[in-house]
Amino acid sequence: MNGAEMKTCPACAETIKAAARVCPHCRNPQKKWSLANPQVLAGLWMSIWLVVACLLIAFVEKMFGPKNEFATYRDEISVISSETSHRISGSNQWITVVGMLTNRSNVGWKEVSVEAQFMDKSGKLIDVIPAQADSYRGVTILPHGEAAFKVEGRAARLESEYNERKVRVRWAKDVDAMF
């Protein structure tokens, strides 16, 4: 064959040119690690789908897997300090409570909701300012961490009637929860 180097196809045993990439008789790729080789292409696709499946499983586990219930850890999150201030805006009197939270648990919490209760001189409850779930996203507090908070609302009474306050953490979500 005009002095061209020849070789034998490993699949069909026909004599072909040594430079051939594909056997002209059986269409078998001559390079073992070529993308034209169906076995290499199939292996590559299997690897890609395996990675996608692993990522999908991890996503589903994070989304629907077990999460920590806040009720179990309620006593682990507490208010370290808080301050109250009153202000007038237009015809409305506003009351604001700011402070610090601490988390003594090994679980991180997000959307931590804080509620402020106000009592008069006799100890009677006269006002409550909760964190509004629709407009307030809460704070995130990491395990063994601290975080600042702020709750604000229109005051129901005159400033002089407010004597004492109690600030409590009402609810929170596991920081690993998707929803």
Structural commentary:
- There is one protein chain.
- This protein is α+β, with helices and mostly antiparallel strands and 179 residues long.
- It has two domains: 6-64, no CATH class; 70-174, Sandwich (Immunoglobulin-like).
- Helices cover 17% and strands 40% of the residues.
- The chain has helices spanning 38-64, 70-73, and strands at 6-8, 15-17, 77-89, 92-103, 109-119, 125-130, 139-141, 146-154, 164-174.
- The strands form three sheets. Strands 5, 6, 7 and 9 form a four-stranded antiparallel β-sheet that branches. Strands 3-4-8 form a three-stranded antiparallel β-sheet, with no helix packed on it.
- A hairpin with a 2-residue loop joins strand 3 and strand 4 (92-103).
- The longest helix has 27 residues, at 38-64.
Question: Which CATH architecture of the largest domain is right?
Answer: Sandwich
Overall body shape: rod-shaped
The poorly predicted ranges are none
Strand segment count: 9
Oligomer category: single chain
DSSP helix count? 2
From N to C, what is the helix and strand string? EEHHEEEEEEE
- CATH T-level fold name of the largest domain: Immunoglobulin-like
Class by SSE composition: alpha+beta
Task: Please estimate the helix content.
Answer: 10-25%
Under CATH, the homologous superfamily of the largest domain reads Immunoglobulins
What share of the residues does DSSP label as strand, in percent? 35-45%
Main pleated-sheet profile = 4 strands, antiparallel
Distance, first to last CA: 72 Å
Radius of gyration: 34 Å
What is the C-level CATH assignment of the largest domain?
Mainly Beta
